[in-house]
Amino acid sequence: MEKTTKILLSEKEMPTKWYNIMADMPNKPMPPLNPKTRKPITPEDLAPIFPMELIKQEASTERYIDIPEEVLDLYKTYRPSPIIRAYELEKSLGTKSKIYYKHEGLSYAGSHKANTAIPQAYYNKMEGVKKITTETGAGQWGSALSYACQHFGIDLEVYMVRISYDQKPFRKMMMNIYNANVYPSPSNRTEAGRKILEQHPDSPGSLGIAISEAMEIAAKNPDTKYSLGSVLNHVLLHQTIIGEEAILQMEKAGELPDVVIGCFGGGSNFSGIAFPFLRLNLKEGKNIRLKTIEPASCPKLTRGKFMYDFGDTAGMTPLLPMYTLGHNFIPAEIHAGGLRYHGAGVLASQLLKDGLIEATAKYQTECFEAGIQFARTEGVIPAPESTYAIAGAIDEARQADKEGVSKTILFNLSGHGHLDLASYEKYLSGKLQDHELTNAEIETSLAEIS
Amino acid sequence: MEKTTKILLSEKEMPTKWYNIMADMPNKPMPPLNPKTRKPITPEDLAPIFPMELIKQEASTERYIDIPEEVLDLYKTYRPSPIIRAYELEKSLGTKSKIYYKHEGLSYAGSHKANTAIPQAYYNKMEGVKKITTETGAGQWGSALSYACQHFGIDLEVYMVRISYDQKPFRKMMMNIYNANVYPSPSNRTEAGRKILEQHPDSPGSLGIAISEAMEIAAKNPDTKYSLGSVLNHVLLHQTIIGEEAILQMEKAGELPDVVIGCFGGGSNFSGIAFPFLRLNLKEGKNIRLKTIEPASCPKLTRGKFMYDFGDTAGMTPLLPMYTLGHNFIPAEIHAGGLRYHGAGVLASQLLKDGLIEATAKYQTECFEAGIQFARTEGVIPAPESTYAIAGAIDEARQADKEGVSKTILFNLSGHGHLDLASYEKYLSGKLQDHELTNAEIETSLAEIS
C-alpha cells in the first residue's frame, strides 16, 4: 500500500460547530465568584470587559455552538490543519507505536492562538467595539490577535511582558506588521502598572501584571473591551475546532488514538485537541487517555492546589475555581513563555479533579532535546511550548515498547519555533538549565492567597 | 456557492515526475564551456563536484524525469503545497481580478528550496557521497539543504556570506538545529577565502565568493561533493514540482491563469512555477504570460548582458551563457538576500532572449509595501524575496482594472518571512532606502569580464 504521510480534510469537511465540554461534564465546574461579593458573577459583572456573545459562551451548557460564517471564512485561510504521521521520528525511536501530530503551526501567526483570536475579534466587531486590549507573554497570542483585529477593523493595544519585549523583539515586530500597538508591561499607562513601577522600577513584568493593565484600560473605556488568549471557557471552546477536525482525520486513518497529548499553560491548546476526544469517552464509552504536559518549573496541575484564585496579579479578574500556584507565583524564566502561568483553566481543572484527564510535568532541557530530535527527523522546528508535547509523545512510545505493545499516539503541535531559534541555540551550546522548584516555594506562594 | 479559499491536492494527486523544459525549448541553450579549453564541458569535467545522476539531469533533454520514491516520501511531509485564493488582498485592492498564490513557505525550512535540497541530497547519498559543501546568502538554501543532508546521513559544510552570518544569526541557528556546520565566508579554510582575506580582511563576503570556497573544498576531496541552490538546470528541474501541482490545482479551480509571476534571483522559484505553464504555451497553444520580478538593484534580466560568464567570483564554475551583470558585480545590500546574484540561470536566460518570458524590475521599498499589505490582508508574512512577486501581482491587478478587464493572476510565494522581521521593522520605521544603480556602474562591472 502506498505510504500516506498527511491526513488532510477539505474545506468542505471542516467542522462548522465548536464543542462545549460543559454539556457532558459529569461534575459541572463551580461558578466564578465576584471577588467583592463572593457571589457567583453575573453577565453584568463581565459586560464592561467582554462582549455579550462571549459572556454567553462562557456560561453556556449547549453541546455545540455554531461557528459564524465570517469566522469560518477566515479559518479557511489556514484550516483544516493537517495531521501528519511522524514516520521519521518513529524510525529514530525504533518504536512499534504510531505517532501522529496535529500541526497547528501553519496558521498565519504560527500557532493555535489564531483559532480563538478570530472569533473573539469577530464578536467584538459585531457589538461595535472599537478597541481591544490584551496581554501577551512571548507574543504568540498577541500576534494572533493582531491580525484578527486588523482584519475586522478594530484597534489593538497589547501589553507585553517587559522582559519579553526587551529580549525577544521579533514577536513585537510581527504585531507591528499586523498594525497593533505594543507596550512593555508594567507601563505607566495604567494605575496597576504605575503602582508596580513605583515599587519596582526595573520590574521584568509578568503575565499576571499585563492582564491587570489590559483589563484596567478596558474597564475604564466604554468602547474598549479586553481579550484573553487562554484559560477562559469561551477560549477553550473555540479551540475545539482542533479536536473536531482530528476526530474526522483519525477516522480517515482508520484508527482512534490510545492517547492524546498537549502541552499545558492555561489549557487552551490541550483542551482544544482533547475535549472532543473526551466526548467520545463520556458519550461513546471510548477509553482514550488525555494527557497534559506542564513545565516542572510551573507545575499547577501536578503540584498546585485546587482552590479559588485570581487570574491576574492585581486581583481584577473574577475568582476562579482552579488548580493554582497562587496568583503571585513568578515562574522561573524557562523558554516556553506560553506555559509560564500560575493557574489552569476552570474546565481543565475540574476535569483533572475528576480524574478524566492526566497531568505530568517535565523539565525544559528534556523537552528541548525532544524538540531537536523532532526537528532533525520531521523537519519542523517546534515552539518551545510544543516540545513538551513531543517529549510526552516520546515517553508514551518508549513505555509502549517496554510493554511490548504498539500504541497510537496523537499530540498537538501547538506552534512553530521560528521566532524561538535563540532558545535552541542556548540549549545546543549547553547554556540552558533546569530550575528545581521546592515545596517551600510553592507553599509560600499559596499561603499568600489562602 | 460556498466560498473556497484553498485548492488542495491529496498526496495521491501529487505529480511523480519533474518537467524538463529543455525538451520543448524552440532554441536549446548554448553549452556551458570549460574556462580553460573554451570547449563545451563534459560530464568528466563536472564529476569531481557533482554526482553523476545530477550531471545527467543537467544535460538531459528527456521531457519528464521520474521523482525517486524516497524523494516523494520526503516531499509528502510538506507537499503538495496549497494554492490559496487571496480574497482579502483582492478586497483591499478593490480589484475585479482573481489573485491566487502558491504557498511554498510551508515547507520545513520555510521556502521552495526544500524541493531541490531533498533530491540533491538523495542522489549524492545514492552515490556514496559522505560530505556536501554549499554556499548560502541569507540562509534559506543552507537551511533547506541542512535538513535534507541530516535526513540522508550526509555531513554538510555551509559557507555563509559573512555579512549575513554576522547580522542575521537566525538562519545559522536553524542550520545548527539541523546539524550542519556553518562557516562565515570568506574563511581561512580555503585558498579562495584566504586570498580575499589577505587583501580585504574585513570583506563582507558575497555569494560568488562563498560558491568559490564551497567548490574548492569539493574539488579537493574525493568523498565530498558540492551543491547549488539555484541557477543550474537540474535545480530548476526539481522546482517544476511547483508548477506541475499548480496546473492540476488551477484545473480544479476551473481556470487557467492569464499570468504567472515569480521573483527572480538565480531563477529557481520562478522557473519552478512557470516552466510547466510554458509547456502549455509551447505544446498546447495556450497564451499564459510568464513574468519575472527582479530587484532594481540587481537587474541582470532587465539591464544585464547576455554573454558567457562565471557563476562565482574566483572563476571556478564553467562559463555559462546567461544574462549577467558580471561576476564581480556586488549588489547593493537590499533585504531580499536571495535575489542578490549577478547572473540568471541558463534556461531562463535563453527563454528571455527568445521572448518566451517577461522581465521587470522593482525597488525594495515598493515591494516591502506590498509585503505589508499582503500580511495585513492575507495574514501570511512573506519573505522579502517573495514581496517582489506580490508587488508584481498587485501591478497586474491594477493594470487590469485600468483596462476594465478581470485577470486571473497566479504568483509563487516562495517563502515566509519569519526570520526577516527585522527588515520589516526597518521598513516600517522609514529606514529602508532604494539604491539607484547607474548605467556606468553596470558598464564598469561588465567591462571587467568582456
N/C terminus separation of chain A: 60 Å
Largest interface: chains, residues each: A-B, 48 and 48 residues
- The counted number of beta strands of chain A is 15
Number of helices of chain A: 18
Largest sheet features of chain A? 7 strands, mixed
Oligomeric state of shown chains: homodimer
CATH topology category name of the domain at 6-11 and 69-110 and 234-437 in chain A = Rossmann fold
CATH architecture of the domain at 6-11 and 69-110 and 234-437 in chain A: 3-Layer(aba) Sandwich
Q: Give the overall pLDDT of chain A as a whole number.
A: 95
Beta-strand residue percentage of chain A? 15-25%
- Indicate the overall shape of chain A: globular
Note poorly predicted spans of chain A: none
Based on secondary structure, the structural category of chain A is alpha/beta
Helix content of chain A: 40-55%
What can you tell me about this protein's structure?
- 2 copies of one chain form a homodimer.
- The radius of gyration of chain A is 20 Å and the shape is globular.
- The first copy, chain A, has a domain at 6-11 and 69-110 and 234-437: Rossmann fold (3-Layer(aba) Sandwich).
- Helix content of chain A is 43%, strand content 16%.
- In chain A, the strands form 4 sheets. Chain A has a 7-stranded mixed β-sheet with strand order 1-4-5-15-10-11-14. In chain A, strands 8-7-6-9 form a 4-stranded parallel β-sheet, with helices on both faces. In chain A, strands 2-3 form a two-stranded antiparallel sheet.
- Chain A starts with 5 loop residues before the first strand and ends with a helix.
- The first copy, chain A, has 450 residues and is α/β, with parallel strands linked by helices.
- The interface between A and B is large, with 48 and 48 residues.
